[in-house]
Structure formats: structure tokens, C-alpha cells
Amino acid sequence: MSKYLYALTGRDKHIQSLRFVIVVLLVIILAMAWGWKSAPKDLTIHIPPDTRTGSTRLWSDIDPSNIYSFAFYIFQQLNNWPTNGEVDYKRNINTLTPFLTPQCKSQLLNEYEERRQGGELRERARNIAEIDGRGINSGIKNYETNQLEPRVKILSDKAWIVTFDLYIDEYYKGEAVKRAIVRYPLSVVKSDTNPEENPWGLKLNCYASQPLKLTSTMGANDE
């Protein structure tokens, strides 16, 4: 009799162990299904422009050259006033909203209003361009250490400071009134909040510090 009881007990334990295995497998399947459903459909991969020497990095890493390109493109578009800065500048700010942090947009709108009230925008055309030889590979000389610092300073994997040396040309009613050379240190942050409107996954956070005028010519109303 005990032999049969032992067999029944063994069978029951085996059934219980199978039930436990089934529950564990069910939990694993549900976890995998949730992970598959919540996985992003698209990934933004930042590839360095020069791949001749190869590149190994995490998919989420962003090459400094891409940071530089993004910051320059957005900043150049902000400062592209074809005919009338009073209209063009505000339109640019609103159009580029997905590429600006809320703080930066507010700062730019305040700057726009101050300049509008000061009469600095009406019928002003403006464009900016990178100075030849002062691109991403040129570096910035630190006169304290006598060392060259990179144009893209990495603060973290989500924040950078990009420094440009740019020509600024302004025209009033078609006549050139200003040419300045200015060093702009711009803050860039990572932001994947809306990939449909901002495929870069980056946002301009305005100035990291006060812009520095390097030279200025043609006189009128220089900033």
C-alpha cells in the first residue's frame, strides 16, 4: 500500500513542479511581449562623417561632429533674415521651436522684443557664415594653458558646449551696414521627446556664456 501512496505523492509533486514551470514560462512570455511592444520602432543612429578609419560606439553615442553640425545649422537658420528681421527673426524662432529648449525659446523671444523695440530689426537683413579655417577641426587656443581646446566640449552624454567663430553681415535697405566677427558658445542638450518633429534628438539651449566680439567693421549700430 505504501508503494502506491509513494507513487501518488511523487506524481502530485511532479504535477506541482510542472505547474510552477508553466507559471514561470508564462511570466517570461508576458515580459517578452511587453518588451517587444514597448521597444521603439525607430532608432536615431549618429554616424561620424569620416568612417575611413572605422568607428566603434554605442548606438546612443553622438559624435562631436554631429553636435557641431546640428548647432551650426539651427543657429544659422535662426539668424537668416532675407528681407526684414522684424518679421523673419520671429518666424524663424517659431519655425525652429522643436529644436529649441523652452528656456531658449523664451530667451530668444525676449531678445527679439528688446531688439524690435530698439529699432534694430526693421528692414534689416542678416546672414552668418563660419570663418574659413575655424571649423570643428581648428580648436580654440586657451591662452592660460597655451593649449588648443576642442570646438565641442563634452559635459556629459546628454550635454555639450559648441563654440563657433562666425561672420555676421547685416544690411539695411540693401546697403551693408555691419560686419562683425563673434565667438558664440552655445549649449546643446540631448532630447528625444518628439522624434517626428525633431529627428536629431538634440536641442539648442541658447548661450552657454556671453558671446565675445572678436572684431567689428563698418560701424553702424554694432552690438
Concise structural overview:
The chain is of the alpha+beta class and 223 residues long. 35% of the residues lie in helices and 27% in strands. Helix 3 packs antiparallel against helix 4.
Overall description:
With 223 residues, this protein is an alpha+beta fold. It has a domain at 65-217: Nuclear Transport Factor 2, Chain: A (Roll). 35% of the residues lie in helices and 27% in strands. It has helices at 2-38, 64-78, 85-95, 102-117, and strands at residues 124-130, 140-142, 147-149, 152-156, 159-172, 175-190, 202-207, 212-217. The strands form two sheets. Strands 1, 4, 5, 6, 7 and 8 form a six-stranded antiparallel sheet that branches. It has a two-stranded antiparallel ribbon with strand order 2-3. Strand 4 and strand 5 form a beta hairpin. The longest helix has 37 residues, at 2-38. The protein is elongated, with a radius of gyration of 29 Å.
List how many beta strands DSSP finds: 8
Structural class: alpha+beta
Average pLDDT works out at: 83
CATH topology of the domain at 65-217: Nuclear Transport Factor 2, Chain: A
> What is the class of the domain at 65-217 in the CATH system?
Alpha Beta
Give the overall shape: elongated
Strand content: 25-35%
Order of helices and strands: HHHHEEEEEEEE
Distance separating the two termini: 103 Å
Secondary structure elements and pairings:
Blueprint (H helix, E strand, L loop, with lengths): L1 H37 L25 H15 L6 H11 L6 H16 L6 E7 L9 E3 L4 E3 L2 E5 L2 E14 L2 E16 L11 E6 L4 E6 L6
Antiparallel strand pairs: 1-5, 2-3, 4-5, 5-6, 6-7, 6-8
